[in-house]
Write a structure and sequence with these properties.
Distance between the termini: 78 Å
Structural class: alpha+beta
Radius of gyration: 38 Å
Strand order of the largest sheet: 2-3-1-4-5-6
Number of helices: 18
Helix content: 25-40%
């Protein structure tokens, strides 16, 4: 299905035209039918000669209902712009033209209605004026058809023309994320809450869980049932008019302007950076205005940065992404001020003097089509999921720009990564120069130093900085072998143990050499000594030497037999045997016996 919204001045015959094309009554309210005036949105559908299904969203033309009109045309990709041939271009025609231009709609057909009430010359004059008025919009080259909905002339041509226009509309993504702007919410007895809207992308399936972003926050809902064109469906693809029967929510909790979203797939924001696409320069726009997007109408505050760029603060959060089109309206005059394109859907806070100017400079350099590098550079590091939610990434395995490094789901700007690496290496180098015996910079201190957005990035920074991670510390490569001032003492200890490998020095002997716990720990990290419990210090080769001796004993052996064979004391033999047990080289059988594991 395709969805086409009408546009045009009041009494241009939009509803009569939809009625003639579809055989359905688009005016839903008794008051509308009694007064012959469309007040709210109407809906109808038909099948064109090609077999193409098309739904119409009929919008009001009166200036008092411009907000309703914008809610109807906002989600629609195609417009049927109607001008009465007998009355010609009207003031409301200009409002609707400005809305079409603001939304960037590029597909549509121009209909000169009530052609039976105008001469051929009058029809030509009205068409010429309409072409001039639409010259600055996406409908500048739209085909035009003169029609009389009451007589029936031109309807066949209009159906055929619509077929041609719809054939050129790009196919939407059926596997994309869903963002359904709600235009109606009501209750059906026996079914419960029903909402309707125009599905522009993605697929909705019965049983889907969606996120409802409403006026008072977000909540999960379940799609209990689906209808399109009054027909029950198990799934609906875009572009379609859809009615969703929702579970777990009351109709009174949903309003026009709320949105049903694929969970965790959309960012929500109340602040955006925008670029003027049509209309009044931002320096001439009032600070307080109304912003229309989708079916939503939200009060907002505008801060201009020159004629074409501005920061927009909305009264509530909306699911907005890069490239979304907004309509800005003056709430006092009811007129359309112009259109805007979102360039930054997640702008930084402006805390310090000069932040605004710096941000505006970055905004001016942004690519309206999306710039992954600029977004990553602005934030230093950002997760892939966030880039997808902003609409900057698509596909299953996107390529990163040359200056972006990817670590898991993190995208990091190369200069930021280099700065992290430099800062970490400088800190580790400085610590080593101050204290060569230190085991290195603790991992906690490294995290605090860099304030990384995710501690999982630390290992990548360490690797890139050509540093080593040893247990809970970061150190310079080879630094563990540099013992500095204690080198002579460690060498003397090695000499003594080399002569008598199982005669570990007493605490006073170690103290005399100037070897306390800190110095011994440095020697052990350097691989020069082995520390066992109870202050026993041996060479790293001692366990292997002990095994050679113990293997020659009759198995199993006692602790006393091991002590005698190793020519050592019980103070040393017990920790050494326990160390051999822990390595699986010996096995303790009972309180007094062990054997060598062969």
């Amino acid at each position: 299905m395709h969805v086409v919204a009408t546009a045009g001045h009041v009494d241009s015959g939009k509803s009569t035209l939809v009625r003639a094309l579809t055989g359905m009554e688009p005016d839903r309210w008794e008051e509308e039918r009694r007064r012959g005036l469309t007040i709210d949105l109407g809906y109808a559908w038909t099948t064109l000669p090609s077999g193409q299904d098309v739904a119409f969203v009929d919008v009001p033309g009166h200036e008092r209902f411009l907000g309703n009109m914008l809610a109807g045309i906002g989600p629609a990709p195609v417009v049927c712009f109607v001008v009465a041939a007998d009355e010609g271009w009207q003031a409301q025609s200009s409002d609707h033209r400005d809305a079409v231009a603001a939304l960037g709609i590029e597909h549509g057909v121009v209909v000169l209605s009530r052609a039976d009430r105008a001469s051929s010359q009058r029809v030509a004059e009205v068409l010429a004026r309409t072409r001039v008025e639409l010259a600055g919009t996406g409908l500048r080259d739209a085909p035009a058809v003169a029609v009389s909905a009451t007589v029936g002339t031109g309807l066949a041509d209009l159906r055929s023309t619509l077929d041609g226009v719809l054939a050129d509309v790009p196919m939407p993504a059926t596997d994309g994320r869903v963002r359904l702007w709600v235009d109606r919410s009501f209750t059906i007895t026996g079914s419960g809450t029903v909402v309707t809207g125009t599905l522009a992308a993605g697929t909705i399936i019965q049983g889907d869980r969606l996120s409802l972003l409403g006026h008072v926050g977000s909540r999960p809902v379940v799609v209990r049932g689906l209808q399109s064109r009054d027909t029950t469906c198990t799934s609906v693809q875009p572009v379609s008019r859809v009615a969703l029967n929702l579970r777990d929510v009351a109709a009174t909790d949903i309003r026009r302007g709320d949105a049903l979203l694929t969970p965790d797939a959309w960012p929500t924001t109340a602040v955006v950076g925008i670029q003027r696409t049509t209309g009044v320069p931002y320096t001439d726009v009032p600070e307080q205005l109304m912003v229309h997007v989708g079916t939503a109408s939200v009060p907002a505050r505008l801060r201009p940065f020159g004629d074409d760029l501005a920061r927009l603060v909305l009264d509530r959060h909306l699911p907005l992404v890069l490239g979304d089109r907004l309509v800005l309206r003056d709430p006092g005059s009811r007129s359309v001020l112009g259109g805007a394109r979102i360039l930054d859907a997640d702008p930084p806070e402006l805390r310090r003097r000069g932040d605004g100017a710096h941000w505006a400079e970055r905004l001016a350099g942004m690519d309206p089509a999306g710039d992954v590098l600029a977004e990553v550079a602005a934030r230093g590091a950002v997760q892939e999921g966030h880039l997808r939610r902003l609409g900057l990434l698509s596909g299953h395995d996107p390529d990163a720009p040359p200056d972006v490094r990817v670590f898991g789901d993190w995208w990091v700007h190369a200069p930021v990564l280099e700065a992290w690496q430099h800062r970490l290496r400088t800190a580790v180098q400085s610590l080593h120069e101050r204290d060569p015996l230190a085991p290195g910079l603790s991992m906690g201190a490294a995290r605090d130093l860099l304030t990384l957005p995710d501690e999982r990035l630390l290992s990548h920074v360490i690797l890139g900085a050509a540093l080593e991670q040893d247990g809970g510390h970061v150190r310079l490569p080879g630094s563990e072998g540099n013992l500095g001032a204690i080198e002579p003492a460690i060498a003397e200890l090695e000499r003594r143990l080399g002569l008598r490998p199982f005669q570990a020095p007493e605490a006073d002997e170690l103290s005399a050499l100037g070897l306390g716990a800190r110095e011994l720990a440095a020697g052990e990290r350097a691989g020069r000594i082995l520390r066992l419990r109870d202050g026993v210090v041996l060479l790293p080769t001692a366990p292997a030497l002990a095994m050679r001796t113990l293997a020659r004993l009759e198995q199993p052996f006692t602790t006393s037999q091991a002590r005698q064979a190793l020519d050592t004391t019980r103070r040393i033999a017990v920790p050494l045997l326990e160390h051999l047990d822990s390595r699986g080289w010996t096995q303790r059988l009972d309180a007094g016996h062990r054997n060598v594991v062969r």
